[in-house]
Design a protein that fits this description.
The protein is α+β, with helices and mostly antiparallel strands and 180 residues long. The protein folds into 2 domains: 53 residues; 107 residues, Alpha-Beta Plaits (2-Layer Sandwich). It is 41% helix and 16% strand. It is built from 6 helices and 6 strands. It has a 6-stranded mixed beta sheet with strand order 3-4-2-1-6-5. Strand 3 and strand 4 form a beta hairpin. The longest helix has 22 residues.
């Protein structure tokens, strides 16, 4: 019988990787002939490197930790007032915040994923629609930057959308909800 499990965060995966590496190093020390390695360490120490620096460099080369971060969703409520200079904004998906976000009916949802993650607006929109089962007309303006994306979502839909996305993976990143 299969059991449903939570998808681990990148931090949890990295912690497990370090634990596994620790066990492998301990086993290698206990069961291997390390004379060639000691010779190499002696040569590196003669070059002025410490044993700690050598060990750290070797571990860095052998352990490929994932340095990316999980996707974090948060949202911010906007006050019921128009900001100066925004009176004639177009309804483009790339303008942010729009009059909708400042009229009290919408909130901005922030995702810490952007152009630097090789993601496009249409991919984020398609992913959110597929996973949260919301209509394409629900999401308003979308503003993508290098490391984050802002989505305009009606107040009455944001909690439902975020709860359906919590814990879901987008590519290799797991979505985690956080409120600001």
């Amino acid at each position: 019988m299969l059991r449903k499990k939570e998808i681990p965060t990148l931090s949890e995966v990295n912690t497990a990787t370090v634990g596994h590496t620790f066990k492998n190093i301990k086993s290698t020390i206990e069961s291997s002939d390390l004379d060639h390695s000691f010779t190499l360490i002696d040569q590196l120490e003669a070059e002025g490197m410490t044993t700690r620096e050598i060990a750290a460099a070797l571990m860095h080369k052998s352990i490929q930790l994932d340095t990316r971060k999980d996707i974090n969703l948060s949202y911010k409520m906007y006050e019921n007032s128009r900001r100066k200079g925004n009176d004639n904004r177009s309804n483009s998906r790339h303008n942010s915040p729009s009059a909708n976000a400042t009229n009290g009916n919408h909130v901005h949802v922030r995702m810490n994923v952007g152009y630097d993650d090789d993601v496009q607006v249409r991919e984020i929109l398609g992913f959110i629609r597929a996973k949260s089962k919301i209509s394409k007309n629900i999401i308003g303006n979308i503003s993508m930057r290098n490391t984050e994306t802002y989505l305009e979502v009606p107040k009455n839909s944001v909690t439902n959308m975020m709860s359906k996305l919590n814990g879901v993976k987008m590519g290799t990143k797991k979505i985690q909800n956080g409120y600001s």
